[in-house]
Design goal:
The protein has 200 residues and is an alpha+beta fold. It is built from seven helices and seven strands, in the order ββαββαααβαβααβ. The chain is globular, with a radius of gyration of 18 Å. Helices cover 32% and strands 11% of the residues.
């Protein structure tokens, strides 16, 4: 099909406990600016269609019951979770189910982040990637985990492509309650339609 390209400098870069992150509050305004530029370039955005997006695979978002982020999104460049990654890689069933874990993966970053700020644990309703959060934001908080990104973050069983519940429960015991399977939204294929974009 026909394509167009516009760009906008990414705002919101912050540092969280010494590692790269970004403030998600600026994201809706940035996307609106991109859509405005497309419209200014002559694209008719009034016709029904589909909105797809691609993101960095390892950015992590924690949200409360209202879908509001509890902290800045941790970038894929946040690699403070070396200890947690090593612990998970030594856990036999976890490693054999989800594969090798790197410090940038959500599987390692989540318990690391909760070790930095333990008060977050009691406020978490869901954990996901930045792309999953934004798709939910556009569709009235219908949060889902994209299969490919969840696989690459050590969250899914490699064969079933579903949340690795039993291995996660074992990891949760090892990590002192900082890796609960119930925190992760339902899995959706990466090409799946999450919902209808809320125009407001």
């Amino acid at each position: 099909g026909t394509e167009a390209y516009v760009s906008e400098p990414m705002p919101g870069a912050v540092c969280w406990h010494g590692y790269p992150a970004f403030d998600l509050d600026v994201l809706p305004g940035t996307v609106l600016e991109l859509l405005k530029r497309l419209n200014d370039d002559g694209w008719d955005l009034s016709e029904p269609g589909y909105f797809s997006q691609s993101w960095r695979q390892h950015d992590m978002v924690l949200v409360d019951r209202d879908g509001t982020p509890l902290m800045p999104a941790l970038s894929w460049q946040c690699n403070g979770a070396h200890k947690e990654a090593a612990q998970l890689n030594r856990l036999g069933e976890f490693h054999s189910s989800v594969g090798a874990i790197e410090p940038r993966f959500i599987a390692a970053k989540l318990p690391w982040a909760l070790a930095q700020e333990p008060s977050l644990e009691g406020r978490i309703d869901a954990v996901m990637t930045s792309g999953d959060w934004f798709a939910g934001l556009l569709t009235s908080d219908q949060f889902r985990l994209s299969t490919s990104d969840a696989l690459s973050n050590g969250l899914l069983h490699q064969q079933t492509k579903q949340i690795a519940i039993t291995p996660m429960e074992q990891a949760n015991k090892l990590l002192g309650g900082r890796f609960r399977p119930e925190w992760f939204p339902p899995v959706i294929p990466s090409h799946g339609v999450i919902g209808t974009v809320d125009p407001t």
